[in-house]
């Protein structure tokens, strides 16, 4: 039997609530627009938290809109730019699962279909409400015979569809959780990339801060090998808010502390340190998951670079104390995690890498001794791997090899690359 994936639209596939955005377009010149915006937002949240029936909320919001077809065109343009980042980078999933990925929403087909179609989601797999219009193109209401306009509409729809397989649901609202309550779906994933509703996430089978996490947990094709929300980024000392914001916005799991607490040593993946914070050598030695350190100051006497080299940890710092580095350094850290870039690193050879599509990027950090690259390429040859591109740079005792390969390969290849003599650290980027 096939698996089916039921995906919400508002605040899940997109970062925003579409009717809220439509109100901002249609009421832009209304004298009481701010009051109406606030009321629409209130009605949305009451419904999403299960405190107001969906039909009551929907009817009240549509009445307040005063929208027409021209407003809808503007809305579609906005929503296409507001697709949630983790959905944006996982188009390939929808291409491979075009028959089993369904958008089920209390929103409206008139704006949902144009937004999701570029992601290989079939029009017939979009289940949503439809507007009614008058002769001048003004929205007058909606089709009240559609089950999705009713309270518990998603449950009613799924009962009608009778999908022949296991069903997994992902969404941010109470109407999504009702699918789990009904017993119709295998597991419910509360999606929190854009907003977390505690009344929903507390009851979910799994809280998924990104679509990458959902795909990872279910072992499905995905753009990145390991969800960024599972990479712990610890921020220590006096660090400007903008620095933390950049890393949080990128999807990393952020903790802000005044000291490098012992409980984080084992699991920390990224460290951003304020000026004058001294990193303890013994803790650094034991931080086996640590991939990169950003230091907002001169790290020369504060971070042991020899240990960083031995453990394959990429160090970025702010030697000259420039204000722009409050943003530049966290971005460099993110670029290393996201793309493998080491540009402007203090201890690693500097590589600025191109983007790739339909390939996996493998990062191999090793001691700079003769023969390592020969061994790496021998492993690729023995496994009949097609190399799309390869980059190598060295600095002192560090060698850094980046290889982009076709996505089809036996997973034993990764084990063999890790076991090459003089390997310091190996990582599959995506």
TrEMBL record:
Coiled coil: 55-82
Cofactor dependency: Mg(2+)
Pfam families associated with the record: ACT_AHAS_ss, HAD
Catalytic activity: O-phospho-L-serine + H2O = L-serine + phosphate; O-phospho-D-serine + H2O = D-serine + phosphate
Record bears the keyword Hydrolase: yes
Enzyme Commission (EC) number: 3.1.3.3
The protein's name: phosphoserine phosphatase
Lineage, opening ranks: Bacteria, Pseudomonadati, Bacteroidota, Sphingobacteriia, Sphingobacteriales
Occurrences of domain ACT (ranges): 361-430
PANTHER family from the UniProt entry: PHOSPHOSERINE PHOSPHATASE
InterPro entries reported in the protein's UniProt record: ACT-like_dom_sf, ACT_dom, AHAS_small-like_ACT, HAD-like_SerB, HAD-like_sf, HAD_sf
GO biological process assignments: L-serine biosynthetic process
Organism annotation: Parapedobacter indicus
A GO term, aspect molecular function: magnesium ion binding
Annotated keywords: Amino-acid biosynthesis, Coiled coil, Hydrolase, Magnesium, Metal-binding, Serine biosynthesis
PROSITE patterns: ACT
Pathway participation: Amino-acid biosynthesis; L-serine biosynthesis; L-serine from 3-phospho-D-glycerate: step 3/3
GO cellular component, as recorded: cytoplasm
Domain of life: Bacteria
EC class: hydrolase
């Amino acid at each position: 039997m096939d698996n089916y994936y039921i995906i919400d639209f508002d605040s899940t596939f997109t970062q925003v609530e579409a009717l809220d955005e439509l109100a901002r377009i249609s009421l832009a010149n209304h004298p009481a627009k701010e009051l109406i915006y606030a009321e629409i937002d209130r009605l949305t949240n009451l419904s999403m938290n299960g405190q107001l029936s969906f039909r009551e909320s929907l009817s009240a919001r549509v009445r307040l809109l005063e929208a027409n077809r021209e407003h809808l065109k503007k809305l579609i343009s906005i929503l296409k730019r507001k697709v949630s980042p983790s959905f944006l980078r996982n188009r390939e999933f929808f291409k491979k699962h075009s028959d089993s990925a369904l958008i089920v929403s209390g929103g409206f087909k008139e704006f949902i279909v144009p937004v999701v179609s570029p992601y290989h989601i079939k029009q017939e797999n979009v289940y949503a409400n439809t507007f009614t219009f008058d002769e001048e193109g003004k929205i007058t209401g909606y089709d009240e015979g559609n089950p999705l306009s009713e309270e518990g509409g998603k449950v009613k729809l799924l009962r009608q569809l009778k999908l022949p397989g296991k069903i997994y649901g992902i969404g941010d609202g109470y109407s999504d959780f009702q699918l789990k309550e009904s017993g119709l779906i295998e597991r419910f994933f509360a999606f929190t990339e854009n907003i977390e509703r505690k009344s929903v996430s507390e009851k979910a089978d799994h809280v998924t801060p990104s679509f990458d996490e959902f795909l990872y947990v279910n072992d499905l094709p995905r753009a990145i090998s390991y969800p960024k929300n599972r990479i712990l980024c610890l921020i220590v000392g006096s660090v400007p808010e903008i620095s933390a914001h950049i890393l949080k916005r990128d999807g990393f799991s952020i903790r802000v502390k005044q000291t490098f607490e012992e409980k984080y040593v084992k699991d920390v993946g990224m460290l951003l340190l304020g000026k004058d914070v001294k990193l303890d050598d013994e803790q650094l030695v034991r931080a086996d998951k640590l991939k990169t350190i950003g230091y907002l100051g001169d790290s020369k006497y504060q971070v042991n670079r020899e240990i960083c080299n031995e453990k394959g940890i990429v160090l970025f710092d702010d030697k000259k104390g420039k204000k722009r580095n409050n943003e530049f350094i966290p971005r460099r850290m993110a670029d290393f995690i996201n793309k493998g870039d080491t540009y402007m690193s203090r201890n690693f050879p500097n590589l600025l890498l191109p983007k790739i599509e339909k390939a996996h990027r493998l990062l191999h950090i090793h001691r700079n001794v003769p023969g390592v690259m020969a061994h790496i390429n021998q492993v690729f040859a023995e496994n009949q791997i097609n190399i799309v591109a390869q980059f190598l740079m060295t600095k002192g005792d560090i060698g850094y090899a980046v290889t982009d390969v076709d996505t089809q390969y036996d997973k034993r290849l990764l084990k063999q690359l890790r076991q090459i003599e003089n390997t310091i650290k190996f990582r599959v980027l995506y």
